[in-house]
Amino acid sequence: MQPAVVWDPALLGYDLGGEHPFNPVRLELTIRLARGLGVLDGIGMLVPEPASETDLLRVHAAEYLEAVKQAPLSGWDVGHGLGTMDNPVFSDMHEASALVVGSTLLAAREVAAGRARRAVNIAGGLHHAMRDHASGFCVYNDCAVAISWLLDHGFDRIAYVDTDVHHGDGVQAAFYHDPRVLTISLHQHPFTLFPGTGHSSEIGTGEAEGTAVNIPLPPGTRDAGWLRAFNAVVPSLLAGFRPQVLVTQCGVDSHEEDPLADLSLSVDGHRAIYARLRELAGEHADGNWIAVGGGGYRLIRVVPRSWTHLLATALDRDVTPTTPLPAEWVDSVREAAPSAEVPVTMTDGADTGYRPWGDGNDDPVDVAIRDTRRAVFPLHGLDPDDPRD
């Protein structure tokens, strides 16, 4: 059963314009790089259609949809978080945003129908959009819409893991009261970064208590610390929750060169994350894995390489880190951006080894691990202080 890749050049229409950091060129460069390396050879791309209004209303208010439709006609500062520096109004905003949602929905439908075990949509991952307002470059929340759709089509245990540098606040908010959805977010500490949420004490409410999980990491966290935190929390929770499908938001703004945040991961660290997510989907989610993109603002040096690794991992066509980038790709980028520093291999040369949690260390990453485990592990019948859990 071949994994599914959702892509169409029309997705480049989600363009916030001008010098906005959320530049769709990162998607085009990724697809071109993946093709140049042979990662997509023989893969028939699935072409999406815009999400219907019925599906958008799963997580968004009707008045908000109308505001998005009318915003290009109304100008700036139209309310609902639209017309701001982060979320400027652009032509065909509703249509372009609905197409992103439709792309992730198509990935979800392929997995739900059993036509694919894994599906990737690098254009997705708009995890900040809220029920009635845009936020953090995100107009409609494709992740939340797809999860809602899955809940109505045969799935009642869904795990969402967010590896973006920013807290996955919109997805958490959509399911904060729903025990059927486990949301886990690893992100830079909210005291130091937008959106200012994602403390370890945010754990869900009512019957869903314990199904919102947050691991706020200190600025400067590198691959070793990030991977230690991930492996100290995520595998145990997935094993206990037993999800039927794993949905992951794979933003790459956690990279040390990203201009909008302060974690210090490498492309090699991202590759290690994707390999671990693939493994965990196989162990705990019947192999069902839906992966979407997200943030990432180092448009040439980071995003294309990291998301090519994501595509390769999902397709079981892992790219050796030392693989040279295709000369045609490098030359075309240098021609378009003569002053850009262009990478030449698929690695940053970083060591992704890490020290497992539980050896008594008390550095800031271990404090974050301890706080998160103590907040949620007892609610899952796990011992927060036992490294075997």
Automatic annotation (TrEMBL):
* Record protein name field: Acetoin utilization protein AcuC
Coiled-coil stretches? none
Question: Which molecular function term from Gene Ontology is one that the record holds?
Answer: histone deacetylase activity
Region Disordered, residue ranges: 344-364
Q: Per its UniProt record, what Gene3D superfamilies does this chain match?
A: Histone deacetylase domain (3.40.800.20)
Give the UniProt keywords, A-Z: Acetoin catabolism
- Write down a Pfam family by its short name: Hist_deacetyl
Q: Which domain of life is it from?
A: Bacteria
What family is this protein classified in? Belongs to the histone deacetylase family.
Name the residues that span the membrane.
Answer: none
Q: Specify the Histone deacetylase domain's residue ranges.
A: 20-313
The organism is Amycolatopsis taiwanensis
Kindly state a single biological-process term from the GO annotations of this entry. epigenetic regulation of gene expression
Q: In which pathway does it act?
A: Ketone degradation; acetoin degradation
- The yes or no answer to whether the keyword Lipid biosynthesis is present is no
